[in-house]
Amino acid sequence: MIAMHQILAIIVLLSGIHASGQERQLSSRARELTQALATLRATPDDPGAQERYLKIFPHDYREFLNLFDLDHELADGYDFIDALSLTGKDHASKLGELLVGLGKDAHYDADAPSYLQEVMAKYAGQHSKTFAELCKQLPPQKQAQLITFLADVEAPPHIPTIRQSLMA
User: Fold this and answer.
1) How far apart are CA 51 and CA 44, in angstroms?
2) Where are the domains of the chain?
């Protein structure tokens, strides 16, 4: 049974009301991601909901910014990005591929990029071997960009582990 606060969260997510208070129609992409988030939040242990969320979540950094950057449809994106952590239990490899794919082109900035950075650093610490293997598949320039992106994390407890894994 869904709790009242979950129902309210789903209603707010699905309403598509812009932060300025003006009603704004979401693109089909933003609506689809919003619906997938609502399903994932309602059933976080469902591998199907996790997989659907990973599939719908942007896989390209430019697309990521087009949804979550300041003054865009889903500006800030905290709830959407934070929910990625829910998918790692059953889909750790797919989550790693997604995060490395985004991180190879990412640049530090406030809000959405910093949330992505937090989720990525947490993943890299929990799945350092998988993360390192995925990073090693990138060209050296993209590896460096991803590590630079991660290195900007405040108090980065996982960075030494990641560096050791990459050098192994």
Assistant:
1) 11
2) 4-167
